[in-house]
Design a protein that fits this description.
Layout (H helix, E strand, L loop, with lengths): L7 H17 L1 H11 L4 H24 L1 H7 L2 E5 L2 E4 H25 L3 H10 L2 H26 L3 H28 L1 H22 L6 H27 L1
Antiparallel strand pairs: 1-2
Amino acid sequence: MFEWLLDPSAWMALTTLTLLEIVLGIDNIIFIAILVGKLPEAQRDKARILGLGLAMLTRIALLASLFWIMKLTQPLFVLFGNEISGRDIILIAGGLFLIYKSTHEIHLQLDFNTDEKKISKKSLKFFPALIQIAILDIIFSLDSVITAVGMADHLEVMIIAIILAVLIMMIASKGISSFVDNNPTIKTLALAFLILIGIALIGDGLDFHIPKGYIYFAMAFSLIVECINIYSSKKSKKQ
């Protein structure tokens, strides 16, 4: 069971996989940060930790049911010349949900009626927020679990990598959430990223693969430009 401890390639796979799980979990953190920001302040830390805990449990549960996941890749029917599997249906449904949710949040961001904003902020309760996080966790987990299966030969290595990645994300999530919540333009940018990720999920479901590297590069570039704008704006206000 622990033979992999003496295998250097297993340790290399563990390190690489942990880093990849963190990268693949960035979209999850962004979604949780935006959703948690709509809760009362006293509940935010609890919802964030529980949300990431759900993500960890979901990924481990999916890893434990590898046989079921492999069956999800078998074609169920053909649509517009593309073979559609159970995995494709989950990705398409998740992409549509993400686009709808992000568009709705952007609409609220652009609504300058403060009374309506207060009502919408109070309208999200703790458990409905967790349910939404859990639904998106399943969709986001598919990519990370499939990546884990493709990179590591030992189930123990995959599970440890997921646990380490989620623990690191738990430490970083509060800072990310505060930053997103305190900067409305960053929040709008994050929502735009989620729309982009939703389109990529639908594309994957329809066998049109958009390389994740392009998406992450666009996200990083836009974020750097926006951070420079925020810094310049704050500096000019001080002056």
